[in-house]
Write a structure and sequence with these properties.
The complex is a heterodimer.
Chain A: H1 2-9, H2 12-17, H3 23-35, H4 37-56, H5 63-83, H6 100-163, E1 168-174, E2 183-189, E3 194-198, E4 211-219, E5 222-229, E6 238-240, E7 249-256, E8 268-273
Antiparallel strand pairs in A: 1-2, 1-8, 2-3, 3-6, 4-5, 4-7, 7-8
Helix pairs in contact in A: 3-4
Chain B: H1 11-19, H2 23-45, H3 48-64, H4 76-93, H5 95-103, H6 106-120, H7 127-134, H8 137-147, H9 153-160, H10 164-182
Classes of the chains: A alpha+beta, B mainly alpha.
Chain lengths: 274, 183
């Protein structure tokens, strides 16, 4: 009993409670406490007084800390409950799709779009070219058509001259001044007062730039100006001259370009009388 | 603080509830012991955010290693306060904490000092003043070094320049004094 008292008084129990003992001392104290009720009681007293001392010196932690600490512990508790079971394998029936597939699709789609774009551009350019070509051809055809329409009109007009019974035809024969064989055919309708020269059948020397042929009508011995014309080898039409209702004869002289008011008799080329 | 209803259980009930991992045990544990444990932690760590971290770690450790506690070996609080003290000492001896302390700027120190003052003059701590008269200064300095500063009795002997035997005796006398005071 003396030993126990000395043991208590050594202060080892206080150090034990303060956690300031070696492992051997700790085991020793626990052994003693188990065997001796007095030591057990003494330890309890020391613990209680230090607990109360701590309570006296307590510091209230901030209010927020309570929920923070409790949450971290409750999360822990939740984890314990939730994860003690073996996690169920959930992806057994899931067929993994290679995510390459969708990416590949879009890649090809994009390539296809690009190819289409290029092809369309080429087609557009070629179509445009052909359209231009067609337009040119169309313009040429229209020009042709216009040309033929003009020609047909002219022919109609000429045909009308031939059909019209009021027209008289007169062949003006060459004078000594003109080359042999020169002649001009004119058509004259006194009713319609129209005079026309057939340019196609006209056989005359080609006039130079400074001179023109001039047609005259002789009315009661006096010359009347009926207009000027050129000898053009390509001419195929009939040229309408100034109108006249009465005429005894027709003659052509070579005059300075633009014509003269009175005929130069020396230069008379052809003449014809009714 | 005061508005919230605090849960309180007897120590036996609490130990049983903790053993059964009941939710209510966690709240009761915190409400009954957080301020006492925080008082010890704060005096060792000083820095408030770190003290709060240590308090949280303490409760996590209590909860996770509760199977290691046995009522035959002592009171629940004794077991818990040793966990808190060890975690607090580990913290202040860690490299991070030492670096952090070096870097603490003046501004932080001002608020820190203010907070310390507030803590010291909290009305619920008025009992300390009675204790001051109860404990002799030399008893109190040793008890506080070991209990609240985390010194071993050997370190305390070095610190105070007092032989080990004397330390042990004074420590015992201080605790005897407390027992008398609380009875």
């Amino acid at each position: 009993m003396e030993d126990i008292k000395a043991y208590i008084e050594s202060g080892i129990l206080e150090l034990y409670v303060l956690g300031d003992v070696s492992r051997e001392e700790k085991l020793q104290v626990e052994e003693m406490a188990k065997n001796h009720q007095v030591i057990r009681a003494e330890l309890n007293e020391i613990e209680r007084s230090l607990e109360l001392y701590a309570e006296e010196n307590s510091i209230e932690p901030s209010v927020n800390l309570r929920s923070r600490v409790l949450n971290s512990l409750l999360t822990n508790l939740g984890d314990d409950n939730t994860f003690n079971k073996k996690p169920v394998e959930i992806n057994e029936n899931v067929i993994a799709l290679p995510d390459q597939e969708t990416g590949g699709f879009y890649k090809y789609a994009f390539a296809a779009c690009l190819a289409l774009l290029v092809a369309s551009s080429v087609a557009l350019v070629s179509m445009y070219n052909r359209l231009q070509e067609s337009n040119t051809q169309l313009a040429a055809l229209q020009l042709d058509k216009q040309h033929f329409a003009n020609r047909v009109n002219l022919m109609d007009e000429q045909l009308l001259v031939f059909r019209d019974a009021s027209f008289k035809f007169l062949k003006l024969q060459a004078t000594p001044k003109a080359p042999a064989g020169a002649n001009i055919t004119i058509a004259w309708s006194p009713v319609k007062k129209k005079v026309m020269i057939d340019m196609e059948t006209m056989k005359m020397p080609v006039n130079d730039k400074n001179h023109q042929y001039q047609l005259w009508a002789l009315v009661n011995g006096k010359p009347v100006d009926l207009g000027v014309f050129d000898k053009n080898p390509d001419s195929t039409n009939m040229k309408e001259m100034k109108p006249i209702a009465l005429a005894d004869a027709f003659a052509v002289t070579l005059e300075p370009r633009g014509g003269s008011t009175t005929p130069t008799m020396d230069e008379m080329m052809v003449i014809g009388k009714f | 603080m005061s508005g919230k209803r605090k849960i309180s259980l007897s120590e036996d009930e609490l130990v049983l509830a903790l053993r059964n991992r009941e939710k209510i045990a966690i709240e009761a544990l915190y409400d009954m012991y957080s301020s006492s444990l925080y008082g010890v932690i704060c005096r060792i760590v000083i820095d408030i955010p770190t003290s709060e971290d240590v308090l949280q770690e303490t409760f996590v450790k209590i909860w996770n290693s509760f199977s290691g506690y046995s009522a035959e070996k002592g009171r629940l609080f004794t077991w818990m306060v040793n966990i808190a003290r060890n975690l607090a000492i580990d913290k202040i001896r860690s490299k991070d904490f030492k670096n952090q302390n070096k870097n603490q700027d003046l501004e932080n120190n001002v608020t820190f000092i203010d907070e310390q003052k507030n803590t010291v003059y909290k009305p619920e701590l008025l009992g300390i003043k009675e204790l001051v008269t109860t404990l002799k200064p030399e008893q109190r300095s040793i008890l506080d070094l070991v209990y609240f500063k985390g010194y071993t009795h050997v370190e305390a002997a070095d610190e105070l320049g007092i032989p080990l035997g004397t330390i042990k005796t004074r420590l015992r006398m201080a605790i005897q004094q407390l027992r008398k005071h609380f009875n």
